[in-house]
Amino acid sequence: MTWTDWALDLLFPPKCPYCQGLLEGSYVPACPRCQPVLPWLVGTQGERKVDFTAGCLSPLAYRDKVVDSIHRFKFSGRASYARAYGILVAQCVRDHWDQPLDAVTWTPLSRQRRRERGYDQAKLLAKWTAQELELPLLGMLDKVRDIPPQSDIQEDAKRRANVLGAYRLRKDAKPEGMNLLLVDDVVTSGSTLSECARLLAGGGAKTVVCATLAQARKN
Predict the structure, then answer these.
(1) Chain mean pLDDT for the chain
(2) How many CB atoms neighbour CB 101 within 10 A?
(3) How far apart are CA 213 and CA 194, in angstroms?
(4) What is the rounded average pLDDT of the residues 181-209?
(5) Taking 80 as the threshold, does the pLDDT of residue 1 lie above it?
(6) Counted domains in the chain
(7) Do 27 and 61 reside in the same domain of the chain?
């Protein structure tokens, strides 16, 4: 821990994302009460197939305390949770992926949603994940069409249709030949990750592997 981290922890004590109790430090992803009862995905449970990718890796199931935590992160201004989340996501990647990675990117919010929330939660999660993995963070995608939330759509086919044309590869993005980690907060059907990965692959990315904090359901 650096002196800056120590000072920030003293002035703004970090809180557990799952119960909002105090953490023992900013490098602790959950408090001792929550740690043993979180819905951990063990072994291959945390691996998901996603089209146009090498798969999606997630440390937690999207249920119980995780649901409320992510809702606060996305809709109640709890941007500070991103650091604790990033520690878990990075460890999950280390545990499940042994191939080289060149950079981390994310599935972006639209400009309108970013203004409403004040930040892009996937970008924050990707930032801390990248820091933990000691990889560069590169913005490669834009969301160019505001669409109904994927969480409001139950059928997988409609989810896939909903995201078509919603994203585009940035003009300055250079994914050619790169092995990329694509980050989002939750994977459900995988439609959003798949569409973003398709664009990255179309831009020449060699490999796209995905990582999320939580997995909502299996295929």
Answers:
(1) 88
(2) 16
(3) 17
(4) 96
(5) no
(6) 2
(7) no
| Residues with Cβ within 8 Å of residue 85, at least 6 apart in sequence | 17, 29, 73, 125, 128, 185, 213
Q: How confident is the model at residue 145 (pLDDT cuts 50, 70, 90)?
A: confident
Same domain? 160 vs 115: yes
Asked if residue 66 and residue 171 are part of one domain, the reply reads: yes
78: closest CA among 69, 87, 65?
A: 69
Q: Which amino acid is at 52?
A: F
